[in-house]
Amino acid sequence: MDTLDTLLMAFISIVLINNLVLTKFLGICPYLGVSGRIDMAFGMGMAVTFVVTLSGTMTWMIDHWILMPMNLEVTRYVCFILVIAGAVQLVEMYIRKFFPSLYESFGIFLPLITTNCAILGLCLFVNLWGIDNLPEAAVLSFGAGIGFTMAICIMAGIRENLNMADVPRCLKGAPITLITAGLLTLAFMGFAGMIK
Amino acid sequence: MILADIFELWNSAWPAGLIMLGLGIGFAVVLLIASIKLKVEVDPKVEQIHKALPNIDCGACGFAGCSSYAKAVAEKPSLIGLCAPGGAQTAAKIANILNLQISDSGPTKRPIVHCRAHTNDKTFYAKYQGIPTCISANALVNVQACKFGCLGFGDCVSACKFDALHIIDGLAVVDYKKCTGCAACSKACPRNLIEMVPFAYENMMTVACSSKENGKTTRSICKVGCIGCGLCAKQTDIFTIEDNLARLDYGKYKPTEQTETALNKCPTGVIVYRGKSAPAAKHPALKKQPPD
């Protein structure tokens, strides 16, 4: 029961309170780049969720079972990037096979998940926060992906409606998007301190 | 001393290298299995066609982008020639890849804006302060006196991916040096002012007006509109008057003396040249002033 409590807390904390996009400002590139339409944003969120779950769990295993016993923490970054790149390749092949239209609409953003700093960030945060059991690391990784999906979908929904709004000429395009992102972040700051 | 340092470096480096190598091989095996299991068969012709296309994803062909057009054209060769930016060259390349012969598709098409009224030439009953797009302004009946003329909010400009259209003093003007003929502007214009015209010559003559009002009304609301007087049609039969509006048969157009006379005789100066090196139109108001 206690473990379940911890896992639930970890999940809520990574989705709402320590949301990678909205409070740690990681993964801003796809957050602004693919948030034009809500269906594409959701697809992107799902792809990132898959990659981050896989790589977060695997990096924890590699970190704890190979690198730490052998005192090779220096190679952490290289190993993590290797895992992420491999996972992205896997996702790309999978999406190309089963969702060709989604693959077309992603274009360059799909391979760019490799360089999505939210994913490497999460892998490093799991280490930084001293998570020492596998289930918690897995839940955190999955939660980070869900948090990203939520943030990008909220953004896409706002931007779809923003297209119809009468935006001042000097703020059209990128400026209003960045202002929106800032306001969204401010709103999510309200969650800070909810869980100790 | 140095040798010892090197040895120490080597001793601490090799396990790291070995682990990286091991991990690399592990992932390589996983990806290899995945690539065999999840292999997608792609027609080599589709890839070749995709390479032959301009890859600007303009959407002129009616497909989402160059890659989807490549796929469609490989299956249905009758779609050859839809690529406007690529033109005849690309069509020939695609035909070559598909082992087909194509007939000459005619001259490349370029847009012509059938209006030449700048803000000063137009008449307004009131000031429009709504959403600044043509499509919403067009919903309002009396947004400007002329029901047919260019609204000047630039829906065509935002549709153009090549920066080849600009609103100059309330009128959309095509920059033919940048235009690729993708017809996006022609689809964007809510008043259907922009016609895709086959440019048999570098510069084409055209009647830059769409007003179907009678001559008196047109004259009262626009300084440069076509009044349907028929002077041009008397000069040469390539001009016809229909609904108080002169029209030019672009298929029959040839730069001759008659067309030149028709251009000079036009009382409102609405017959103009459009194209890469088109001479600037003489404004009727400027004509009357003595040259200095």
Number of H- or I-type helical stretches of chain A: 8
Gyration radius of chain B, rounded: 29 Å
The biggest chain-chain interface is:
A-B, 22 and 19 residues
Distance between the termini of chain A: 19 Å
The helix/strand series of chain B, from N terminus to C terminus, equals: HHHHEHHEEHEEHHEEHEH
Structural class of chain B: alpha+beta
Rg of chain A is: 17 Å
The amount of helix of chain B comes to: 25-40%
Describe the largest sheet of chain A.
none
Q: What topology, given as strand order, has the largest sheet of chain B?
A: 1-4
How many distinct folded domains of chain B? 2
- The stretches of 5 or more residues of chain A where confidence is low (pLDDT under 50) are none
Estimated share of beta-strand residues of chain A:
under 5%
What attributes characterize this protein structure?
heterodimer, A: 196 residues, mainly alpha, 0% strand, globular, B: 292 residues, alpha+beta, two-stranded antiparallel ribbon, 11 helices, elongated, disordered C terminus
Please describe what this structure looks like.
The complex is a heterodimer of chains A (196) and B (292). Chain A has 196 residues and is mainly α. Chain A has a domain at 29-164. Helix content of chain A is 71%, strand content 0%. Chain B has helices spanning 2-37, 44-52, 66-75, 87-97, 134-137, 155-159, 184-188, 215-221, 231-235, 257-265, 284-288; strands at residues 109-113, 165-168, 171-174, 194-198, 203-207, 239-242, 245-248, 271-275. The longest helix of chain B has 36 residues, at 2-37. Chain B starts with a helix and ends with a helix. Mean pLDDT of chain B is 83; it is low at 283-292. Classes of the chains: A mainly alpha (196), B alpha+beta (292). The A-B interface holds A 62, 66-67, 70, 72, 74-75, 78-79, 82-83, 86, 89-90, 93-94, 96-97, 100, 104-105, 166 and B 15-16, 19-20, 23-24, 27, 30-31, 34-35, 38-40, 64-65, 67-68, 131.
Overview in brief:
The complex is a heterodimer of chains A (196) and B (292). Chain A has 196 residues and is an all-alpha fold.
